[in-house]
Amino acid sequence: MLSVLDAEAKILDLATLPQALAHTESLDLHQASGRVLAETVVSPLDVPHWDNSAMDGYAVRYIDVQAATADQPVTLTVTETIPAGQPPTQAVGPGQAARILTGAMMPVGADTVVMQEVTQRQATQVKILAAPEVGQFVRRQGSFYRAGSPLLFPGIGLNGPEIAVLASAQYAQVRVYRQPRVAILSTGNELVEPGTPLQPGQLVDSNQYALAALVRRAGGLPIPLGIIPDQPQTLRQAIATALSQSDIILSSGGVSVGDYDYVDQILADLGATLHIRAVAVKPGKPLTVATLPPGATGMPPLYFGLPGNPVSALVSFWRFVEPALRKRSGLGQGWSPGFVSAITDQPLKATGRRETYVWGHLRITPQGYRFELAGGSHSSGNLVNLAGTNGLAVVPVGTTLIGAHEPVQVMVVGDLR
Ligand code: AMP
Ligand code: MG
Predict the structure, then answer these.
(1) Is the pLDDT of residue 415 over 60?
(2) CATH topology of domain 4-23+178-316
(3) Across the chain, what does the average pLDDT equal?
(4) Among residues 320, 309, 308, which one has the least CA distance to residue 280?
(5) pLDDT tens-digit profile of 133-184?
(6) What confidence score (pLDDT) does residue 255 get?
């Protein structure tokens, strides 16, 4: 059985980064947040685009005011007022100054801005009460960025700050990676859709909905394909359908060694290469990872056969599917789950034989992170106490107990609040 780390490494190896243009699309800037940049962004404009003032004050020639003091102020003649957005109409000559506002273009001749707090205005004249430094409060054209050099690189996530950069670089549209399409199918004769009255022995398919939500959150495009009964023909057809329209296929259930477990055989029939059969993790030991023959876009679809138990399916998603999904989404620096060191409120127990993930709530305190074990049963079939989970505490192989108030590594799987 593979260790968790070996399984993760193997999966990341199999999840190739998209390269071809076919994996990208052009979006309006408003649509691009949360997506991954697929082009090198180069601005045709210097930043700042003109020499401009960083202050409300007076644009002056340094040479005129270098000796100014409160006792011996220098008096200059004000030529005009330059608000932001309006170009200067005249040069500043010897003995002159222009009233200038923050962000406005510097007039020709002036090289320095004196902030208004050290000036005294009298009609058309202004007294400069202190000598500035040469060039003070002038934002020089190109001092932040020179037109033509690369500004942003492919593989970065786009959010507020990056979108601001794109907008100022004149990008009304931007090329991003297409979101990986993730087909989701639930296998099991016992499963029914939410809203259906249960016949004896039936169970509501919760995995379909949970996985779709997690896929969306991780930047993928879920394609829910519904419930597939445990019949080889139907299952084979469903996986073939999934193959034709997705980059990643997630099935849940049917991968253990029960009588109705056909998935591995079907995968073999479809020409898949099986890479992982099981991982030394709890919950989630049975995990099938396979690659299928490359489709039209040239990237081999990745198949994850997740355990059927709701908790196992979610933990497997967080630990193994999400890194692959994020990588397929184009993130250049890769992505790996975030682990933090926290103090556990309750004792955490495990058998010590497999790396164990226990679910609960991670919170930020002024003293650091705290982990609170979810109440109720920690059976992998219990999804009732999953609500509110944002952290999985890790009990390593060889450890059977982490005592209350001891430090523990916690994998962050949701928002911290
Ligand atoms: P399996 O891996 O198919 O043997 O399923 C293991 C357990 O998970 C069984 O109790 C199933 O009823 C349950 N299960 C399987 N699929 C789902 C699903 N989509 N939603 C909720 N529970 C499921
Ligand atoms: Mg089943």
Answers:
(1) yes
(2) Molybdenum Cofactor Biosythetic Enzyme; Chain A (3.40.980)
(3) 94
(4) 320
(5) 999 999 999 999 999 999 999 999 999 999 999 999 999 999 999 999 999 9
(6) 57
Which CATH code for domain 338-412? 2.40.340.10
Atom 15, ligand 1: residue with shortest CA distance: 308
pTM over 0.85: yes
What is the C-alpha separation between 360 and 386, in angstroms, rounded? 8
Residues 343 and 393: their CA atoms lie apart, in Å, by: 10
pLDDT tens figures, 268-320: 889 999 999 999 999 988 899 999 988 766 788 999 999 999 999 999 999 99
- 258 alpha carbon to ligand 2 midpoint, in Å? 8
Give the mutation target among 185, 207, 208, 309 for probing the ligand 1 site: most ligand atoms within 8 A of CB: 309
Closest-CA residue, ligand 1 atom 6, reads: 308
- Fold observed for domain 26-44+145-177: Molybdopterin biosynthesis moea protein, domain 2 (3.90.105)
Q: What is the pLDDT at residue 259? A: 57
Pocket test for ligand 1, best of 207, 255, 264 (most atoms within 8 A of CB): 207
Cβ atoms 236, 185 nearer than 8 A: no
On whether the CB atoms of residues 362 and 416 are closer than 8 A, the answer is yes
Q: Which CATH superfamily is domain 52-139 in?
A: Molybdopterin biosynthesis moea protein, domain 3. (2.170.190.11)
Domain ranges of the chain: 4-23+178-316, 26-44+145-177, 52-139, 338-412
d(CA 343, CA 389): 16
Q: Is 305 in the pocket of ligand 1 (CB under 6 A)?
A: no
**What are the b/e assignments for 227-242, b being 16+ CB within 10 Å?**
bbebeeeebbebbebb
Measured from the CB, is residue 254 less than 6 Å from ligand 1? yes
Over 80: is that where the pLDDT of 393 sits? Answer: yes
Q: Which ligand is nearest to the CA of 283?
A: 1
What is the three-class DSSP state of 240? helix
